[in-house]
Every structure is written in structure tokens, then in C-alpha cells.
């Protein structure tokens, strides 16, 4: 990463939350902050494509023009600004005038345990919707989808992938070569599953689907077995 990108990353921290992505701004000028955010988006356009973004601006006092300009810049990059979290009453009022949320929800502890105790919002992207055909989501950590993955959709994670729904698209876990990664779903009827460099054949839809977990076995092959939730 060059010095410019390192500076951008130090001004804006981005992580996955239940409803998409959260960008937390540091104590710099507003121009520096939004420039740093746009720089990170332009550096990884495929990651941010179609993302829902919330921003935490701390005590920064923002007017309507400030947020409208940022919203338009994000929209041009196919990123939707949906929430602004702030300690400033002026900024909160401005966000509400623009129809933006001023509160964001995070996974409740019991929901997070329902998936896996090893996944936290610092290392995981939570996608709280069905992933439709033509959508590709990549993340340098785990991905948790609360919804289905439709045919023609792609999920690519450097870590594990957990789907609280039906998988009929392509899912790739351990995309950087992690052969200990796994894929869990309530219904694994995927077009293709990949873990590291291992690829499955197309899986046929099941009449009575059961939760399954796919991983690489001791022989080095990708296999799926019953995912015991209890």
C-alpha cells in the first residue's frame, strides 16, 4: 500500500456491520475525510459495488450541502449512503432532513452466536438481504449472509462463508488459499462451491434440504456434510 492509501486508511476505518458497511471518520477536516473515503472506494471498486454504507462522523458538524455532495459522489460509484451517525445535533438534523437514518443496528449477541462464536463484526461482512443475480460480493474476511444467494450471484471471502438461507449461486471461501475455510448454509444447492483452489461439481437441488457445511477433508477434497446447529 502506498503512502496515499495508508493516509486514507488512517483517516477512515471501514468494517462490516449487519446492514452493510460502516465508515468511521477520524478527527480531520471534512474535506480530508470524504476524500479519504472516496479514495478507498476507488482503490477497491469491486468490493464496494452495490454496498450500503453508513458513516460515523463523530462531532463533525455538517450542513445539507456537505452530505448531498458526499451522497452524490457515492451514488456515482454505485454505493448507497443510508445512515449518518453523529454526536453533533446539527449533523443529525441534517441527515434526518435528507431522509437518512441516524441510528444503526448491530448484530445482537444471540444472533452472532447462532452463526459462530469466532466471527465478529470486526472481521466479517454481514449482508442482511438476498444476493441477486449479477451481484458479486468480495470481502477480506468472513461473510455472513442472512438471505439467499440466487443463481448468477457470487460470494468471495478470504475467510469463511455462512448463509442463513439457500445457496444457488457461486460461493468461494478461503479465496487467498486458506484450505481450513468452510461454507455453511441451510440449503447448499449451489452452482459451484470453491474453497481455496478446490472446486465442487454443480450440486443438485434437494427435495428435503438440510443445513450443510462444506470443507476440505483429510484427503484434500471438498465435501459437504450435515451442519449440526445445536
Q: What does this molecule look like?
A:
The protein is an alpha/beta fold and 230 residues long. It has two domains: 3-97, Transcription Regulator spoIIAA, CATH 3.30.750; 109-226, Pectate Lyase C-like (3 Solenoid). It is built from six helices and 15 strands. It has helices at 3-11, 30-43, 45-48, 64-76, 89-97, 109-115, and strands at 12-17, 20-25, 52-58, 80-86, 124-127, 136-139, 142-145, 154-157, 161-167, 170-173, 183-188, 192-195, 198-199, 212-216, 222-226. The strands form three sheets. The protein has a six-stranded mixed β-sheet with strand order 5-7-9-11-14-15, with no helix packed on it. Strands 6-8-10-12-13 form a five-stranded mixed β-sheet. Strands 1-2-3-4 form a four-stranded mixed β-sheet. It is elongated and about 60 Å long. The N and C termini lie far apart (43 Å). Residues 107-122 have low confidence and may be disordered.
What tags apply to this protein structure?
230 residues, alpha/beta, Transcription Regulator spoIIAA, Pectate Lyase C-like, 2 domains, six-stranded mixed sheet, five-stranded mixed sheet, 24% helix, elongated
